[in-house]
Amino acid sequence: MEIINSNAASLSNYEVFIHLQKIKESKKKQKGQLATITYETLRYLEETPSKSQTNTSITQCLKELQKFNLNKTEKLMLINSPPSTPLEIQLMIEESEERLTEEQVQEILSILNKHFPFLVPVKMENEENSE
Amino acid sequence: MFILAEMKNVTRITPELFNVNLNEAVAGELNKKLANKVVLNVGLCIALFDITSIKDSFIIPGDGASHTIVHFRYIVFRPFMEEILIGKIRSCSQEGVHVTLGFFDDILIPPSALQHPSKFNETEQAWVWEYDTGDGGKHDLFMDSGETIRFRVTGETFTETCPAGPSGIQESQEGIENKVPYSLTGSINEPGLGLLSWWDN
């Protein structure tokens, strides 16, 4: 076996979820290691928001996030585990204090909340700095 | 956290599979070979994504099977550095907090990467974050197994695991058993990281 490109593309949790579900639902009975890993991975993904995401909600959301000048991995994280508090945004976006204003952070949160409404509602100004 | 890896393989299809469609036979063989396995410096293989090209099959004298060169893409679990993931605490020990994602277990958050100050509680077998309440007192936040935890991926280690050698060599045998092919190191020493319940008031 030969590895041509060990990282050809990144996949969002949603894409993996859909693909694994197809494998699970195919007529052929899966066996062995493939069955184990699809079962375990699906069980993990079912607990993530990817279960209720759709193709259109993700593309729409990414379009609206374009203006914030985020890089690919940051957007991937926002989609995989949509944050609901400014604190979580701070974790996912590097140097977010310098790159984004407070209004912009709120705007990102409301965009995410609009497209993925199943999340906990955005808490306003509830940020707590424990330090 | 998931990526696509492009690979090439010469797949051997045994005669009993000659009645099934070649694509399906190849897909089955690739999944049998790779699913739930760690490939060195690639990651944990999950499932075949697609086959990009299949060359002509050939046969080798003395072997009834056919051999086919296939190029394919595979779904691989390999989080990037600094990625934020959510998992469950599997157990706590002196070495730190062991986290599992369900399909991947080898994640360790070492004591130095826990919230400061944290200490290990021997009787409860759990790490405790001695959260400073600000008024001189402190509040003990336990990290019990089964709790959901958010952490940052800070390191990855691939170890080459060779097949077990001859059983005569006792010492090396033990070493092999402890080897983990792919493990991740995490950290939770930032505000917002750690048990989800710590932050959602």
Low-confidence stretches of chain A: 121-131
Rounded average pLDDT of chain A: 84
Order of helices and strands of chain B: EHEEEEEEEEEEHEEH
Q: How many angstroms does the end-to-end distance of chain B come to?
A: 28 Å
**Element-by-element helix/strand order of chain A:** EHHHHHHH
What does this structure look like?
- The complex is a heterodimer of chains A (about 130) and B (about 200).
- Chain A has seven helices and one strand.
- Chain A folds into two domains: about 15-50, no CATH class; about 55-115, Growth Hormone, Chain: A, CATH 1.20.1250.40.
- By secondary structure, chain A is mainly α.
- Chain A is elongated.
- In chain A, helix 1 (about 15-25) crosses helix 2 and helix 3 packs antiparallel against helix 7.
- The termini of chain A are far apart.
- By secondary structure, chain B is mainly beta.
- Chain B folds into two domains: about 1-75, RNA polymerase Rpb7-like, N-terminal domain (Dna Ligase, domain 1, 2-Layer Sandwich), CATH 3.30.1490.120; about 85-200, Beta Barrel (OB fold (Dihydrolipoamide Acetyltransferase, E2P)), CATH 2.40.50.140.
- Chain B has three helices and 13 strands, in the order E-H-E-E-E-E-E-E-E-E-E-E-H-E-E-H.
- Chain B has helices at about 20-35, 170-180, 195-200; strands spanning about 1-15, 40, 45-60, 65-75, 85-95, 95-100, 105-110, 120, 125-130, 140-145, 150-160, 180-185, 195.
- Chain B has a five-stranded mixed β-barrel. Chain B has a four-stranded antiparallel beta sheet with strand order 1-4-3-2.
- The longest helix of chain B has 13 residues, at about 20-35.
- The model of chain B has no long low-confidence stretch (mean pLDDT about 90).
- At the A-B interface, strand 1, helix 1, helix 2, helix 4 and helix 5 of A face strand 1, helix 1, strand 3 and strand 4 of B.
